[in-house]
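For concreteness, we quote verbatim a single protein encoded this way:
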Amino acid sequence: MEYPDSFASALTGNWSGVRTTALQHGIRFDIANSGDLLANSRGVRADIRYANLLETAFTADIDTLAGWPGGTLYIMAIASLGGDSAETNGSISAPSNLTAADGFKLFEAWYEQSVFDDRVGILAGLYAVDSEFDVKGTADVFLNGAFGTGLDLSETGINGPSVFPVTSLGVRVRANLSQEVTVRVAVLDGVPGDPNDSSGTQISLKGADGLLIMSEINYQPEQFDFLRFGLGSWLYTAEFKDLLDTYANGDPVRRNGTYGVYGFVEGVIFTETEARDQGLSAFLRMGGADEDVNQIARFYGAGLVYTGLIPNRDDDIVGLGIAVGVNGEKYKRARQSGGVAVRDAEIALELTYRAQLMRWFSFQPVLQYYINPGANPALNDSLVGGFRYSINF
């Protein structure tokens, strides 16, 4: 846990010394609010949507607080409101990664115990896998949700995987095999929340839910300023209906589980001579999912990100990215057999610029262009434009 000398990067400052005192006892409070105002030109219909997300987090270093080495307690609650731009844009990917059902909920609540000088960590509780799995720090600037968890993973499961905005109970084990190699494995309830009730925090453990099992290995070679490779896999153990195949009586064939794999690389391409934290970075992400039960069979994402492009704007970030979700053959054949036309893929392009106007406030204009939104031939290509603001309290 960091112990800053001041809280100049927070709008509300040091709370008359309360934050510093809390940190000295191993407790940290974080509060942030972000809002997206996005307008789409066509898609299902032209419209303007606003989404807001308030995040409050509590972190406790149990060693400092209670003398128990290696323990960390983390609790995060979120409050969300506003509309989903994907509803009027018609896209598979979410134009705003803040979008969630209106309401207040406990989002994460877990305890992690590290052992062997932090070479191994065991975490248990309400856990969002997208906090550690399929994470590309270089892609953090983008608003479209597909640049976070790829569509080949985010669009799976009975109620999605355990990612924002719905999480499930689970256990995660981390092992630092060396300074360069880290392995993570997580086992979670296969159905986060309640598919029939999006309000509040819903925890319901049922045998039919099965499990979601995730694994990822990261390799970050020491000889580079920043270069990281990741390879991951996921598996649901529950039963799923086949998208196309049926039994003799016409019922869909039941498949025992579904799976997928993904890989990514991100790193610095070059840095400015006089400022090592400024320059051009990039990421590339690819993944595939079992076509028997999943709509998105393949996903490709890539982006270029430049920090400090404009002189005297050292903390500003500009990003250009592309996300491509490709429909599986079974999904297309099932739709076509029902008389519904479908295109092969949806393509989303994003150009955005995050301006750090104050240490606690950023403003971020964005333009997104959707080719074949929803892979629906009845929808015209759509332009989405607007802005995000973020405030650190």
In short: The chain has five helices and 16 strands. The first helix runs from residue 18 to 24. The radius of gyration is 22 Å. The mean pLDDT is 94.
